[in-house]
Write a structure and sequence with these properties.
It is a single chain. The chain is of the alpha/beta class. It folds into two domains: about 220 residues, 3-Layer(aba) Sandwich (Aldehyde Dehydrogenase, Chain A, domain 1), CATH 3.40.605.10; about 180 residues, 3-Layer(aba) Sandwich (Aldehyde Dehydrogenase, Chain A, domain 2), CATH 3.40.309. The strands form four sheets. A seven-stranded parallel sheet has the order 10-13-14-9-8-15-16, with helices on both faces. A five-stranded parallel sheet has the order 5-4-3-6-7, sandwiched between helices. A three-stranded antiparallel sheet has the order 1-2-17, with no helix packed on it. Helix 3 packs across helix 4, helix 4 packs parallel to helix 5 and helix 9 crosses helix 10. The longest helix is centred in the first third of the chain and has 19 residues. The chain is globular.
Length: about 450
């Protein structure tokens, strides 16, 4: 049931009123001007990636500077590459065979709830999607991402004004709180919520259309026919990216039992992985990174050597990832839950069927509906994994963290919001795209030369 709706605070009421006024003006703008604005927003983040990444590190205290630079550049480029040339205003398509004409119209004011883990790229992505469809957007950042959101909003508005766009088309909630975010979600027309489970649940309880995400906990299967060195290198790239803050990063590696030692060696040989099978050491990590069954917030987004230090263990600062042998899949080991820090686990499997069972067991604990990954050249195994696992996307032979949200080398829609379907309590089981932030009217005409069946019984034959 929707939460009890209260009158919004003066701040939220005024912001939404201004946003509606701006949106009514903006929806009259031609596609060319809208696209120019959206392009320049993406280009601003691309060109200022170093400055923005540094700001994110300073304000949040988590993540990896170089990876954040890479993320800002790659995400802005791929999102614009996917948006350019796409019609999002007025008549966007016709189907003469069905006698249909499709007309895109704005949803109105988009509320963008953004997380501490991604204070630059998520607001950018949501703003680009919202404006592409003629909407206004109000960003509600995590308190530690406040400066990032305000600086970007000012830059985005300078771009809007450059094309004679309206004031207040892009706004940021200031001195926000859980309560003001709830007020915003109840006042806008549609919500994109990226963050903790409680906030996403609140978005879906707001009484307004909402797009949220569920937790990730990506199991990754290494098949028997794959090059272990190549697979290990890709997994390390994904699992360690931005100190493991991306929800689609690899969490638990499943490897053929007869190749277990070779697989561990392949990970170690990357020069970036510290491994342990020592029970006492592993237990020390469990106690350090999980408190009362939940992630210890003090280690989220820290580099591997700092996480190890919390566990009372010294490892080289050059290590990007900690690899630990788990006791078993699913509920057998807390290390099989989601971990937003550079610690992953590894388990051996006997048959491919068992690998699928173990992957699903992990998803049942956490991450159901999100993402799984596989490194395989066996098309039958790839397809059966896609059929068997309750995930919205299966990433094949790629670093999951940097591919599940779309890349130049796959067909996933570029985004920062990865829907988890009904499994994860979400309204979509695909990557959020600009098309989710538009209303589409249909004009339906009589289909020429189309006849009704003379005998209704023919329908049932």
């Amino acid at each position: 049931m929707p939460e009890t709706i209260k009158s919004p605070s003066p701040q939220i009421s005024e912001m939404v009123l201004k946003a509606r006024e701006a949106q009514r003006i903006f929806e009259t703008f031609p596609q060319s001007d809208i696209d120019s604005i959206v392009r320049e927003i993406g280009k601003y983040v691309y060109d200022n990636a170093e400055l923005l990444a540094q700001m994110a590190i300073e304000d949040t205290g988590i993540g990896n500077l170089q990876d954040k630079i890479t993320k800002s550049r790659s995400k802005s480029a791929i999102i614009w590459n996917n948006l350019k040339g796409k019609k999002s205003r007025g008549i966007i398509g016709e189907n003469s065979e069905k006698g249909l004409i499709y007309i895109a119209k704005p949803m109105g004011v988009v509320g963008s709830v953004t997380p501490v883990t991604n204070p630059i790229v998520t607001p950018m992505c949501n703003a680009m999607f919202a404006l592409k469809c003629g909407n206004a957007v109000i960003i509600a950042p995590h308190p530690k991402g406040q400066r990032c959101a305000e600086d970007m909003s000012e830059a985005f508005m300078n771009i809007v004004l450059k094309y004679n766009g309206p004031e207040n088309l892009v706004q940021v909630v200031k001195n926000g709180s859980v309560e003001t975010t709830k007020e915003l979600m109840q006042a806008v027309d549609v919500i994109v919520a990226t963050g903790g489970g409680a906030m996403v649940k609140s978005a879906y309880s707001s009484g307004k259309p909402a797009f949220g995400v569920g937790p990730g906990n990506v199991p990754v299967i290494i098949d028997r026919d794959i090059d272990l060195d190549e697979a290990a290198a890709k997994i390390v790239t994904g699992a360690s990216f931005d100190n493991s803050l991306i929800c689609s990063h690899e969490q638990c590696v499943l490897v053929p039992e007869e190749q277990y030692n070779d697989a561990v060696e392949a990970f170690i040989n990357t020069g970036k992985v510290w491994y342990s099978a020592d029970k006492d050491i592993i237990e020390a990590f469990r106690k350090a990174v999980f408190h009362d069954g939940k992630m210890n917030p003090e280690v989220i987004g820290l580099p591997a050597w700092k996480v190890a230090a919390v566990a009372g263990i010294s490892i080289p600062e050059t290590m990007r990832l900690i690899l630990l042998k788990a006791k078993g899949a699913g509920t057998a080991d807390i290390l099989c839950k989601e971990k937003l820090f550079p610690v992953i686990c590894i388990l051996p499997y006997s048959s491919f069927e068992q690998a699928l069972q173990m992957a699903q067991a992990n998803l049942e604990v956490e991450g159901k509906g999100h993402t799984a990954a596989i490194h395989s050249n066996n098309e039958d195994h790839i397809r059966v994994a896609g059929l068997s696992l309750t995930v919205s996307r299966l990433v094949v032979n790629q670093p999951s963290a940097t591919s599940a949200g779309g890349s130049f080398l796959n067909g996933f829609s570029p985004t920062t919001t990865l829907g988890c379907g009904s499994w994860g309590g979400n309204s979509i089981s695909e990557n959020l795209n600009y098309t989710h932030l538009m209303n589409v009217s249909q004009i339906g005409k009589v289909i020429e030369n189309k006849c009704m069946p003379i005998n209704p019984a023919e329908i049932w034959e």
